[in-house]
Amino acid sequence: MNHTNSENVDMFETEIPEQYTRTGLILGGEGLARLRNSCVLIAGLGAVGSYALEALARAGVGAFRLIDFDVVQPSNINRQLLATHASLGRLKTDAARERILSINPSARVETRNELINSKSVASFFEGDWSSPPDYAIDAIDSLGPKVAYIAETLRRGVPLISSMGAALRVDASLPRVGRLTDVSYCPLAAQIRKRLRRLGVNTDDVRCVYSPEPIRENLRAGAERLLRVAPAKELTPETLDSPPGRPRNTLGSLPTIVGIFGLRTAHEVMMELSGYRAKFGA
């Protein structure tokens, strides 16, 4: 877990590496040391997850645990930071590792190219991982896996920030952070609340990024179109929460909105892990 000894603090107070100078002017040497000694678990490396990992890597977080099963596809390019024509077909976990290390070569990056579901979530906090996470990010876009991950994270007492639905939103001024209990105008949040309560989870304990923007009817109509998603080669019906190739809603999304969701997510983690919020209440 997060541990900051006096040697690390002193080093960062007197010898802050140039790439962290401006961050250090706000967070201080102690804050930078705390980030360097922290491990962040990110589940889901799509639009929100990729922007979150980018910001945290640039802030100096020292260890990442990344989980995603997918590969980069052409439809990802409009909104996912890791998706480019050069990365098409690559595992998102591999692209994410490369991105983080290009920003901070000394970072420790652990990855699992694994499905997120009720059977696998427990393994994300144990087993061959080198250390338990200090903070967990939920950037999963599927309902069942999202609920399972949130419930397991809270059960283990790991601080969590979850992203609600960013699709179909166009007002960049509205995304905010609050309790899942209080989220309005978000069909995804409503379904998550219902399922978590069935599991005995207090939704007051789920901190999340969300937008209270009502979904416009003209955009909602476009969301009714369905896209048949082909299963990945290694998958079998037994390894999924639902059968492969199932229909999924194709939801419109803007790179600006999902980017804001991801950056707000990272900001919450950075303020907490650095100790800045505990000191100044920001």
Describe the structure.
- The structure is a single chain.
- The two termini are 23 Å apart.
- The protein has 9 helices and 9 strands.
- With 282 residues, it is α/β, with parallel strands linked by helices.
- It is 37% helix and 13% strand.
- It is globular.
- The strands form 2 sheets. A 7-stranded mixed sheet has the order 3-2-1-4-5-7-6, with helices on both faces. A two-stranded antiparallel sheet has the order 8-9.
- It has helices spanning 6-14, 21-36, 47-59, 92-103, 143-155, 187-198, 217-222, 255-273, 276-280, and strands at 39-43, 63-67, 108-112, 135-138, 160-163, 176-179, 207-210, 226-228, 247-249.
Sum up the structure in keywords.
globular; 7-stranded mixed beta sheet; two-stranded antiparallel ribbon
Strand content: 5-15%
- Count of alpha and pi helical runs: 9
Radius of gyration: 19 Å
Helix proportion of residues, in percent? 25-40%
What is the structure about, briefly put?
The protein is α/β, with parallel strands linked by helices and 282 residues long. The chain has helices at 6-14, 21-36, 47-59, 92-103, 143-155, 187-198, 217-222, 255-273, 276-280; strands at 39-43, 63-67, 108-112, 135-138, 160-163, 176-179, 207-210, 226-228, 247-249.
